[in-house]
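User: Could you check the structure of this?
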Amino acid sequence: MTDLSGKTVAFLVAKEGIERVELTEPWKAVEQAGATPKLLSPETGEVQTFDHLDKAETRPVDTAVGDTSVDDYDALVLPGGVANPDALRTDETAVGFVRDFVASGKPVAAICHAPWTLVEAGVVQGRTLTSWPSLQTDIRNAGGEWVDKEVVQDGNLITSRNPDDIPAFNDALLEALSHGAAAQNA
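Assistant: Sure, the predicted structure tokens are below.
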């Protein structure tokens, strides 16, 4: 595995409704690869994770999304949960950050319901994605192609369906980050 020391990965979430494992497992994979994860949210303070519908742990926010820049990060992860991306897609600053991140060409990884934020950012037109099955109509209506696969990579977008896909999701994220590292070190 490529050493990703010096890389910083943004994890963008709303205040609550985050599916815990869709945040903590990619976070752990990023840390184990030597990169630094940072938790972003529309507001500072703490965010509430969930195990499906049951409250789990809270986590401290590192930076409000409005107080940072795409230039500060090498990749973006959008965890799911139903309420999390539904709230995030109503925050103009968060949606703008996602839009700018996709436009940057850096890896953007979204799992489960998180592609809702990609739809809101207007970045799925002509792209192939996967997600929780209930989002397929939203993705198609936004001009994307929805497929039922464990992980889909289309350009800099990486998407997966659900927590069962986390190992493949993490592998695709780390691979994309290492290619970015190789390109920047060349």
